Amino acid sequence: MEQVAIRSWGNSQGIRIPKHILDKLDLKTSDVLDILIDHNTIILRKPFEHKTFEQRLAEYNGEISVNDFEWGDPMGKEML
């Protein structure tokens, strides 16, 4: 676990996030993060980003994986 110090930053306070953590999370200067407080914990996370159809299509590599799923034995009046 790493520790950071709270420092004055104008009329506010702030912390510095080490570069190796920013790199690991692919964060850059001016990125916006959601901040949450859960009990006695501060949580910073990337906000959900809705992808456009074009963005999803660009990520598609032409492969579709199909997985069989075993639902188990019928338990009631399921149609077979």
Count of individual helical segments: 2
Report low-confidence residues grouped into runs of 5 or more: none
Please compute the radius of gyration using only Cα atoms: 22 Å
CATH topology of the domain at 7-59: Pemi-like Protein 1, Chain: D
Strand content: 15-25%
Oligomeric form: single chain
Shape: elongated
The description of the largest β-sheet is: 2 strands, antiparallel
Broad structural category = alpha+beta
Number of strands: 4
Which H/E pattern describes the elements? Answer: EEHEEH
SSE layout and pairing:
Layout: E1 7-9, E2 12-14, H1 19-24, E3 34-38, E4 41-45, H2 53-59
Antiparallel strand pairs: 1-2, 3-4
List keywords for this structure.
single chain; 80 residues; alpha+beta; Pemi-like Protein 1, Chain: D; two-stranded antiparallel ribbon; 4 strands; elongated
Describe the structure.
Residues 7-50 form the SpoVT-AbrB domain. One of its GO terms (molecular function) is DNA binding. The chain has 80 residues and is an alpha+beta fold. The chain has a domain at 7-59: Pemi-like Protein 1, Chain: D (Ribbon), CATH 2.10.260. The chain contains two helices and four strands; from the N terminus they run E-E-H-E-E-H. A two-stranded antiparallel ribbon has the order 1-2. The longest helix has 7 residues, at 53-59. The model has no long low-confidence stretch (mean pLDDT 88).
